[in-house]
Amino acid sequence: MDGRDERISGLLGAARGRWLALAGVLAVALALGACGSAKTVAPPSGSGPASGPPSSTASGASTAGTLTASMRTKRYCEVLLVQLVNGKASAEVYNSYPLNDCPAEQWTALDANAIAAREGVPRAVLNGPRYWLMDRVEKAASADRVTKDFGGIAMIREASVTVGSLADGAKPYTPHNVNRSTVFTFDAGRTVYELTGADGSTYVMQTWSQQVDPKLAEGDLAGLATRLHLPAGWSYRSRTLTSPLRVVTTTTDAKVLQDDLMNSYSLETGT
Questions:
Q1: What is the pLDDT of the chain when averaged over all its residues?
Q2: Given a cut of 90, is residue 91 above it in pLDDT?
Q3: Exposure string (b/e) for 116-153, b if CB count within 10 Å is 16 or more?
Q4: How many domains does the chain have?
Q5: Domain range spanning residue 134?
């Protein structure tokens, strides 16, 4: 490896924490694009990986009617294929939802370095596992769908994303604007987990992560206030909904942040 390669490798290695910190934010915008134009996003029909060739393209998106099944607690994971150009990072993001539930055995066996070498990119980042907390998502369909197989886990390519300078550190509790054109719905009777900022803004948890705490489960979320390192003036709570909570970002950017356990939240829109 020459000096230039070592410098690039070092930059990418230093950036890994940034990519992991932003991966949940990216997932919010990207993970749902392949679910078709259904009014309700459905959970995967099976828990195992889909079969087929390493990559394929399906033209056209299916249209389905309203589905009653909830996606809440459904597990997913992502692979980010990262490029570095002039000190700026970009990535193609592949997501397992709704093709499968990111089987643990296959996921833990993935080697990011081997994936990067196979795909011809300088860095691959593994993001997950994560679990959805909303019940439904409304999102417009994409025209084409590209899939790849990563160690037996079929994933959908959702987009190519430019994050920016590697010198910009991602910090927890910092909102990021995400153009995702979606409606997230949390059903009445569900428990939701919320952060309230020093300015009074309220963010609802949309996914929880097992990247920092591999044993974190839904039953642990109500008690996170004692574990989080909240900024001054911030608070955390859980509550049971008496009516549906909808986060509507069809005509405006969503504002998304993560806590220090890498759980991700959306700003509530009051609609």
A1: 78
A2: no
A3: beebebbbbbbbbbbbbbbbbbbbebbeebbbbbbbbb
A4: 2
A5: 3-165
